[in-house]
Specification:
By secondary structure, this protein is of the alpha/beta class. The protein folds into 2 domains: 88 residues, Alpha-Beta Plaits (2-Layer Sandwich), CATH 3.30.70; 175 residues, Oxidized Rhodanese, domain 1 (3-Layer(aba) Sandwich). It has 8 helices and 16 strands. The strands form 5 sheets. A 5-stranded mixed sheet has the order 4-1-3-2-5, with helices on one face. It has a 4-stranded parallel sheet with strand order 6-10-9-7. The radius of gyration is 18 Å and the shape is globular. The two termini are 27 Å apart.
Length: 271
């Protein structure tokens, strides 16, 4: 039986995060859905999986709330459930940066459709920036993109301070897995005086779903935070497995060599 996976997020003021958490938990449980949903005063962020009807009823329930009426979700389909349990958690931020000036509800970069992304990043005057962490970049990224070599997204402001300048880098195009980190990263860059900031709408996953492989500038696979580990064009499972000790993606056949040097540094839990 096919399992439907949906990923969604929205930055919006939530005055009752605990009440919303309880509500979403009840609906997801009733529909046999597993995965993770984060709820914070700044919005929601989730990736969950379950029966197609249950997923659609969960999304309809959320969109029935005026705060999430325009919620955008991305669906994909797998043969086996990618999550073992359901977690609906309260957090301070749905994606942690700890910089209040990075507020996507006040300002955000210019969205670029996947079909327009190639032309933008081919412009030599545009700095292409991968906002993901080192273990994600290692298995796939866009050609000539800058790797910030961060261990966590919280290190992104330090990378900006040490390496970027609004006068030297007036045009920046950013991308991440599903788009959420770029919302905050673009808001942060704008707050620091960078004049033109762009980000890939829907993230890498939407690009891999939309752009034909023969036209793609993507190289490698895209790490995802579930049992699928990494995805290829068409949003189909790739060739990596997950190290159970450190959470990092490992190429199939390379598990033994990886374990010998594994530092048990967790890759993280969500986008």
């Amino acid at each position: 039986m096919s399992v439907t996976v949906t990923a969604f997020y929205k930055f919006v003021a939530i005055s009752d995060p605990a009440a919303l958490r309880d509500q979403l938990l009840d609906v997801a449980r009733a529909e046999g859905i597993k995965g993770t949903i984060l709820v914070a005063p700044e919005g929601i962020n989730g990736t969950v999986a379950g029966p197609d009807g249950g997923i659609r009823r969960l999304l309809a329930h959320m969109r029935g709330d005026p705060r999430f009426a325009d919620l955008v979700s991305k669906e994909s389909y797998v043969d086996e459930p990618p999550f073992g349990r359901l977690k609906v958690r309260l957090k301070r931020e749905i994606v942690t940066l700890r910089r209040p000036e990075a507020d996507p509800t006040k300002q955000v970069g210019t969205y670029v459709k996947p079909q327009d992304w190639n032309a933008l990043i081919a412009d030599p005057d545009v700095l292409v920036l991968d906002t993901r962490n080192a273990y994600e970049v290692a298995i796939g990224t866009f050609k000539d993109a800058v790797d910030p070599e961060t261990r966590t997204f919280g290190e992104f402001p330090d990378f900006v301070a040490a390496n970027l300048d609004p006068e030297k880098h007036p045009r920046i195009a950013m991308f991440c897995t599903g788009g959420i980190r770029c919302e905050k990263a673009s808001a942060y860059l704008l707050s620091q005086g960078f004049p033109e900031v762009y980000h890939l709408e829907g993230g890498i996953l939407k690009y891999l779903e939309t752009v034909p492989p023969e036209e793609s500038l993507w190289q490698g696979e895209c790490f995802v935070f579930d049992e699928r580990v990494a995805l290829e064009h068409g949003v189909t499972p790739g060739s990596h497995v997950m190290c159970r000790a450190c959470g990092a993606p490992v190429a199939e056949g390379d598990e033994v060599r990886h374990r010998a040097g594994c530092r048990r540094t967790a890759a993280g839990a969500s986008e």
